[in-house]
Automatic annotation (TrEMBL):
GO terms of molecular function: ATP binding; phosphorelay sensor kinase activity
Domain PAC: 353-405
Domain of life from the UniProt record: Bacteria
Enzyme class per UniProt: transferase
Transmembrane segments: 236-259
Domain PAS stretches: 275-347
Protein name per its UniProtKB record: histidine kinase
Lineage: Bacteria, Pseudomonadati, Pseudomonadota, Betaproteobacteria, Burkholderiales
Histidine kinase domain: residues covered: 425-645
Length: 661
């Protein structure tokens, strides 16, 4: 019995000693692995710095040879730097000052294949590349293992040449690996079969050998870094039992210390958590944004004071409530319940930008809200409900309505001002048919007085034709001036151009301007406010004709053109481009930056609102209004409008449906 116990204790002691030896060996191996990784990291960092230094000295600059010589003096691992043209013909080269020229014995031609391979790889990669190392014989029967680095030099997107740097593997180990790593260890570059290419450091011999390897994966080449260390076998403890008891005592004290530290840390964490909860509650209570949380069954589990103030209900009146919510308008309860059922079933994800809905306060008043909703995810990644943020947008809608009304009044004023400016043209156009009507009427009276009735019918027909002509002029002005609802509709480009042509033609005939229209067949309709876009076209056309008239252009020509815009790379909505081009003097450089500024005008009688309103109208449609020279002479204004889809929405997308809470 005792023998078995002694044997068991002895076996335990032997196992403990063996485990201690294994542990010490593992510690030595781990330290060697860390040192090897550190050495590999030092080499990678140094190679990266060398590459940056090489890139900072492009071969096209003057004084390159001096800079290359300075680089060689600062970096002993380089033995040669060359500048080669795009055909790999050497232009200039500088050798290291610390040894005899490395290629002095066999010449550079023997290594040409390695240089060509590295540079071909660099050209293919578009960056630096390394060649496989090779042995370079030296005078006196010696030699060294070297490696080529090729860096392409690109100027204005074209290959201009190469920078070729030759590394000495032995000098890399000497210069790039820290001395503290090679003091008692041996570091080397080896091949896959263990053949050493370069060696540095002298290790103290011992009974056990520890080795570690790291791969240096360079562009175009892979080097194996090996580090060897010799250690003596670990000694036994002088008193195993004493060491065990001491170790257990220290372990017990350490456990108690850790337990006390853990308790203090737990108390501190709990205090931090309480502070964080108090801070979050204070922050949520101070928000003007309403917050509401619901579980997966639709029951309200949390509301902040801002939400309660928004709807007029207290938190006690809202907590635990499900559909129908007390702040839902009665006329929308059925619709909201259906949409909430779809939401809770996970069949519809709310948009990240939010959606609008209508809520009812406790006093029965309605107000619009913007709802931003997101799923509530717990620490295990499981959804437990929905979190919603609410913004009362009543004031924003009121301001938007005031702005819209002001914009409408301003646009109506601009249209009336346009018609006022065209009063002389209208007078001229109406004088001709009215004069003709008066002449035919006088002639008819004369015929009646003379008893001749044969020409009365022809005179009456001419009077009707001239009256119809005058009516067309008046109707075109009426259609332009009258106030319409700002509803966007699908309108053919030809219809927009035809609508403004009568008014454009009035001024064109007076000023002697030739008007050309270029509208290819098959153009799709655009989604726009027809009245506003017609005003944009008319303003641009009138400005162009007035500019040519003031400049005294010999043969003034105005061109209205519509074409498709090139499709977007991301496959977005389609657009049409409208352009108004003239052959006038162009826009002076000193006013180009202020051309679209409100109330800026170069005309004595102008209001300075035409181009500003044009840009506003186009941007409200999501388009862009810009101008550029119309070579060889003149200016062309261009603006874009979205193509109407099948459902009347831009790009063919249906209008977004109104969401509900």
């Amino acid at each position: 019995m005792w023998a078995a116990l002694v044997g068991l204790v002895a076996a335990l002691l032997v196992i403990l000693v063996w485990l201690a030896g294994r542990y010490e060996a593992s510690q030595v191996q781990d330290k060697l692995d860390v040192d090897t990784a550190q050495a590999a990291g030092d080499i990678r960092t140094a190679l990266a710095r060398n590459l940056q230094a090489l890139q900072a000295s492009p071969p096209s600059r003057e004084g390159w040879a001096l800079e290359a010589a300075q680089l060689l003096r600062e970096r002993r691992e380089w033995v040669r730097i060359e500048w080669r043209d795009s055909a790999l013909v050497a232009v200039a080269a500088v050798d290291t000052p610390y040894r005899a020229p490395p290629f002095g014995r066999l010449g550079r031609e023997n290594a040409q294949a390695d240089v060509q391979l590295a540079c071909a790889n660099a050209r293919r990669r578009g960056g630096p590349a390394y060649a496989a190392s090779y042995f370079l014989p030296q005078p006196g029967g010696l030699g060294m293992e070297v490696m080529e680095l090729c860096l392409p030099h690109v100027v204005a997107g074209q290959l201009a040449g190469y920078m070729v740097a030759t590394y000495s593997l032995a000098e890399m180990l000497t210069s790039l690996v820290g001395p503290q790593l090679t003091r008692n260890q041996e570091v080397s570059f080896v091949e896959a079969d263990g053949t050493r290419l370069a060696l540095h450091g002298v290790a103290q011999r011992g009974s056990r050998i520890f080795s570690s390897q790291q791969l240096l994966d360079l562009p175009g080449n892979t080097l194996v870094l090996r580090m060897d260390s010799w250690r003596a076998a670990p000694d036994l403890f002088p008193n195993v039992l004493t060491a065990l008891v001491t170790g257990m005592s220290i372990a017990l004290a350490a456990v108690l210390a850790l337990l006390g530290k853990d308790t203090r840390r737990r108390v501190r964490v709990e205090q931090d958590l309480a502070d964080a909860l108090a801070f979050r509650k204070a922050m949520e209570d101070s928000l003007v944004t309403g917050l509401r949380a619901r579980d997966l069954q639709g029951r309200i589990t949390y509301v902040n004071p801002a939400f309660c103030q928004m709807v007029g209900f207290s938190a006690e009146e809202l907590m635990g409530k499900s559909a129908p919510a007390p702040y839902w308008p009665p006329e929308l309860v059925d619709e909201y319940q259906k949409r909430q059922a779809v939401r809770l079933a996970g069949q519809h994800v709310p948009p990240r930008e939010g959606f609008e809905s209508v809520f009812m306060r406790k006093d029965g008043s309605r107000f619009p809200v913007l709802i931003i909703e997101a799923p509530l995810i717990n620490a295990q990644g499981v959804q437990t409900g929905w979190m919603s943020a609410f913004l009362d947008v009543s004031e924003q809608r009121r301001i938007e309505e005031l702005s819209r009304a002001s914009q409408e009044r301003l646009q109506a004023t601009a249209r009336l001002a346009t018609v006022g400016e065209m009063a002389s043209l209208l007078s001229h156009e109406l004088s001709q048919p009215l004069s003709a009507i008066a002449s035919y009427a006088t002639g008819s009276l004369n015929l009646l007085q003379g008893g001749a009735v044969d020409g009365i019918e022809l005179a009456m027909r001419r009077i009707a034709e001239q009256a119809e002509r005058a009516g067309k002029v008046i109707r075109s002005v009426h259609d332009f001036v009258r106030r319409r609802d700002q509803a966007r509709e699908a309108v053919a480009p030809q219809a927009l151009v035809d609508a403004v042509m009568p008014l454009v033609g009035l001024q064109a005939r007076k000023l002697g301007v030739t008007v050309l229209t270029r509208l290819p067949e098959g153009l799709p309709a655009v989604l726009c406010d027809r009245t506003m876009v017609e005003q944009v076209l008319l303003n641009l056309a009138r400005n162009a004709m007035q500019a040519m008239d003031e400049a005294g252009v010999a043969r003034p020509t105005l061109t209205l053109q519509v074409r498709r815009c090139p499709p977007a790379a991301d496959g977005g909505e389609a657009w049409l481009e409208f352009s108004v081009a003239d052959g006038g003097p162009g826009v002076p450089r000193d006013i180009q930056d202020r051309l679209f500024t409100p109330f800026f005008t170069t005309k004595a009688e102008g209001m300075g609102l035409g181009l500003s309103l044009c840009r506003t109208v186009v941007e409200q449609h999501g388009g862009l209004l810009e101008f550029e020279p119309n070579l060889p002479q003149g200016t062309v204004f261009r603006f874009t409008l979205p193509v109407a889809g099948p459902a009347g929405a831009p790009g063919g997308l249906p209008a977004a449906a109104l969401e509900a809470a």
